[in-house]
Design goal:
895 residues, alpha+beta, 9-stranded mixed beta sheet, 6-stranded mixed beta sheet, 13 helices, 27% strand
Length: 895
């Protein structure tokens, strides 16, 4: 057994830390025989200096003529203790090999298997038979605890018994006469103590050339192990430390360790008083005050103890008062000072992400912002331009607000799939993003918080509760979208890989036979379809753009037609019709997924054929797989005959392929992710393409919709807004359709051309997906079956955006019969007299005075007005507008 000499000189410890009672002693050497004499039989214990042995008894249980399981020797260690050198030697008075610390009668059995035990609380007697049926299992155990044991083995055959899982021998055909413990385990020593140069009570020569039995251990309090830095100054060293156990996660499916804490601490707010111990060998309970000898380790940023060599129980039923913890941090990473500690969160918190709840038992929580407001953390680039000081400050604030609520499950394989799902329960309660969380009492550790591998792994501070958190459903579900005004509704919905071709690992989907996506079985597909059909039916929009549909055309056997059939069956009538792909396009581009349009034939009709932006001057990158093809279709509102065009898009995602690294499309670290340049180019391509009226409508009312994979203030959206397009949902106060890394933001849009501004009536985003735990979706591989429900919730990972329209003629927005191009007063009610440019007398007079600031001799304002009418009549309304007339007046005056 490795012996430890404790060095207390390197640090000042409280008195209670030095008082280490018995429970660490181990059997380290035994001699039971030697040539011609039994004078030098002995056993040796190693342990802490001055360690009390009073409650221990040394036993020998035989397997020979005395009978299996019979106690052959009892050595009571009352009033004994381990000397300062860490070795305790018990021997008979005839010992010639050294000086015994304790002289007693041994008379060890040496002719058959024998088991030596060090036990606590012994109440038995000499010659007591503990294995009455001789089956090798003790029927009676007259002690409270086995501290250590070793069986010396001659042979294991029929009827031969030993009573310890540890064993050494045989030595040839004999039981080992001399055995001692080294780093590598028990070894057999020399039979002849003289020729073997045996010196009991000292270090033995172990195999491999090393003595290996003695090591000096420094006594260090937990707060000094943790220190004021993230990396312990004792990393890699073996230390002795004490504390009280605050949380135990030692099961095979858990963290495989426990947390313990210095109950008094050092009073320094910059150092943690607690630490995680990676160990399942020693059983501990909450409230145990323990002393351990273990190695200090840094495990991916977590300071921990591992490889326990000794553990001493000091006392039981102790308590540690949780330390108050408030959010946000002053500086990101401040939670390091709580690592390993028992805490209670005293500020309000809310759920900001629950995506990993069913998979890893984790939720991202957020405290108040710097102003003390309990609002959802929003992507910095959803509010501020990328790279701006405001965006940088906001991103930092978000990170300082976060704390991960975990469940103490296995961190090594990071694949818990717990059933029931922690916190959600079974049957499940509703836990949505934005819900309030109270009663957060637990221990803080540091570990991975996402499913990324290698460099993509994200680690942060996590709380493992020791009490049940309390959730309050403050973000209430809406079974249907919020009612919005408008005669017509346009919606966009990412349906998360709706494939009728079942994904079974084969590369059979899309124009290039890429790998399929979506459901992995017919049962999963049914679950997926039922959810998406229900959601689309509830949208009740007149035109719907769909994203992530299998790219297998728009015909009778396509995924798109299958979905539309399902929606119509659900509604009980043929409500929706598919917009066919452009003439000559069986599929839409080269990707395995595509965009699509469906519409209500009862409220809108098609104007011409659909169009797509193919490879060419507008977008030369399409053929390189760097963009997905959009589809545009013009419609006419049946009730009014007014036309509009919808173009549905799915811009390139933020995920970087390896080929991007090092070029302009790589992640620039400004919050916009990879491919930002390509998305911005694609947005400009759309602007230029749609300006050519590709769908054939005479109307300038155009809507760019879909998953643009850019947040509200990122370059692609800014490019669209600079071209006059209006972010409709934002205009009506909606700010998110997606959650990533605990932050909300908009990836899904209806962007309306400037000509539609008078037509925009309302907008909403239906939060049925991104706020819901992922475990509620259609997948079967990670989701317990009882969590699935045939409803709209978690039908996808994006929320649907819906806008309401009261279409007006974009060329005559006030319906006064005068086109806006000729109408300087488009806000004048349509009851104004035609022939005045849509202007009231007062408005017209203001315009005349603005264009003709001079006064003609003898002319009053009425005469100016009459001259305007005369010029307009002379040249005709179709040729001249009021502004041109006024300029002509100016020219006449100057002549």
């Amino acid at each position: 057994m490795k012996r430890f000499l404790i060095n207390f000189a390197t640090c000042a410890l409280p008195i209670s830390f030095l008082a280490i009672p018995a429970n660490a002693a181990q059997i380290s050497e035994i001699r039971i025989d030697q040539p011609s004499s039994d004078n030098d039989e002995y056993f040796e214990l190693s342990g802490f200096s001055s360690e009390d042995l009073s409650n221990y008894t040394y036993l020998v249980i035989g397997d020979g003529s005395g009978g299996s399981g019979v106690i052959e020797a009892i050595i009571n260690l009352q009033a004994q203790s381990i000397p300062a050198d860490g070795y305790f030697l018990a021997a008979e008075s005839t010992l010639t090999l050294g000086s015994a610390d304790f002289v007693t009668t041994l008379n060890f059995e040496n002719s058959d298997n024998v088991t030596h035990l060090l036990v606590e609380g012994f109440t038995g007697s000499d010659q007591q038979d503990l294995d009455t049926d001789d089956d090798g299992v003790l029927d009676i155990t007259p002690w409270t605890t086995i501290i250590d044991s070793i069986s010396l083995v001659e042979t294991i055959g029929s009827g031969d018994q030993i009573y310890s899982s540890n064993q050494v021998g045989p030595d040839g055909s004999f039981v080992p006469a001399h055995s001692f413990y080294c780093d590598s385990g028990w070894q057999i020593g020399a039979f002849d103590p003289i020729s073997g140069n045996d010196t009991p009570g000292q270090v033995n020569a172990c195999d491999g050339g090393g003595t290996g039995e003695t090591e000096t251990v420094t006594a260090v309090p937990i707060y000094d192990i943790q220190s004021e830095t993230a990396i312990s100054p004792y990393e890699g060293q073996v230390v002795l430390t004490t504390g009280t156990v605050t949380a135990v996660f030692q099961e095979s499916h858990q963290l495989k360790g426990f947390f313990f804490q210095d109950a008094l601490g050092d009073g320094n707010a910059l150092t943690s008083d607690g630490i995680f111990v990676y160990d399942t060998q020693y059983s501990v309970n909450v409230g145990d005050e323990i002393a351990i000898i273990a190695e200090v380790d840094e495990y991916f940023g977590l300071t921990e103890l591992k490889n326990i060599t000794e553990l001493t129980l000091l006392s039981s039923d102790n308590s540690v008062i949780p330390t108050p913890l408030s959010l946000p941090e002053q500086t990101n990473g401040d939670l390091e000072r709580f690592e390993g500690m028992l805490v209670t969160v005293i500020t309000d918190t809310l759920v900001s992400q629950n995506y990993f709840l069913g998979r890893y038992g984790q939720m991202t929580l957020a405290g108040p912002n710097d102003e003390g407001l309990m609002v959802r953390p929003e992507k910095a680039t959803n509010q501020f331009p990328a790279g701006s000081s405001e965006a940088i400050e906001h991103a930092d604030e978000n990170q300082r607000r976060f704390l991960i609520l975990d469940d103490g499950q296995d961190v090594s394989s990071f694949g818990d799939n717990p059933d029931p799902v922690p916190y959600l329960g079974n049957p499940p309660i509703v836990i949505r993003g934005g819900d309030k969380v109270d009663n957060l009492v637990g221990v803080i550790d540091f570990g991975r918080i996402n499913s990324g591998q290698g460099a993509d792994t994200i680690r942060d501070y996590r709380l493992h509760p020791i009490e049940a958190p309390v959730f309050t459903n403050t973000n209430i579900r809406q079974d249907s979208p919020e009612a919005i005004s408008g005669r017509l509704k346009i919606a966009t919905f990412n349906v998360l890989n709706y494939f009728t071709t079942i994904d079974q690992g084969g590369a059979t989907c899309g124009p290039n036979n890429n790998g399929c996506r979506g459901a992995d079985s017919a049962a999963e597909f049914t679950r997926q379809k039922d959810k998406i059909v229900s959601a689309i039916a509830e949208l009740d929009a007149d035109v719907i753009g769909l994203i992530e549909i299998e790219n297998n055309g728009t015909g009778a056997n396509s995924a798109l037609q299958d979905l539309v059939n399902g929606v119509n069956d659900h509604l009980g009538t043929t409500t929706y019709t598919v917009v066919q792909n452009p003439v000559g396009s069986s599929t839409l581009g080269d990707d395995v997924i595509a965009v699509a349009l469906i519409y209500k034939a009862g409220t809108v009709s098609l104007v011409g054929d659909s169009a797509t932006l193919a490879t060419g001057a507008f977008d030369p990158n399409l053929s390189d797989g760097l963009s997905r093809q959009p589809i545009a279709q013009s419609f006419s509102e049946i009730a009014t005959g007014l036309e509009f065009t919808v173009a549905v898009n799915h811009l390139k995602s933020k995920r970087p392929p390896s080929s991007v690294q090092g070029n302009a499309n790589d992640d620039q670290g400004d919050g916009q992710g990879s491919w930002n340049l390509r998305r911005t180019e694609a947005a400009q391509d759309l602007i230029d393409w749609l300006a050519t009226n590709p769908a054939g409508s005479t109307s300038t009312s155009t809507f760019i919709i879909g998953d643009l994979n850019a947040y509200g203030q990122e370059d692609p959206i800014i490019a669209l807004e600079n071209a006059g397009y209006i972010n409709v949902s934002k205009q009506f106060g909606e700010i998110y359709s997606y959650t990533f890394d605990g932050e909300i933001g908009t990836l899904d849009y209806v962007m309306a051309s400037a000509a539609t501004s008078a037509s925009l009536a309302d907008a909403t985003i239906w939060h049925i997906n991104t706020d819901e735990p992922n475990v509620l979706d259609y997948n079967e591989e990670f989701n317990p079956s009882e969590y699935y429900s045939q409803d709209v919730y978690r039908s996808s990972d994006h929320d649907a955006v819906i806008i309401g329209l009261n279409l007006v003629n974009p060329d005559d927005s006030d319906s006064d019969g005068i086109s806006n191009a000729d109408d300087l007063c488009p806000d004048t009610p349509s009851s104004e007299t035609a022939g005045t440019g849509g202007c009231s007398d007062e408005q017209l007079l203001t315009l005349v005075n603005a264009e003709c600031p001079y006064t003609l001799p003898g002319w009053d304002n009425i005469q100016k007005k009459c001259l305007v009418f005369y010029v307009r009549t002379l040249y005709g309304e179709d040729y001249m507008n009021i502004a041109q007339s006024l300029r002509l007046i100016s020219n006449i005056r100057n002549q």
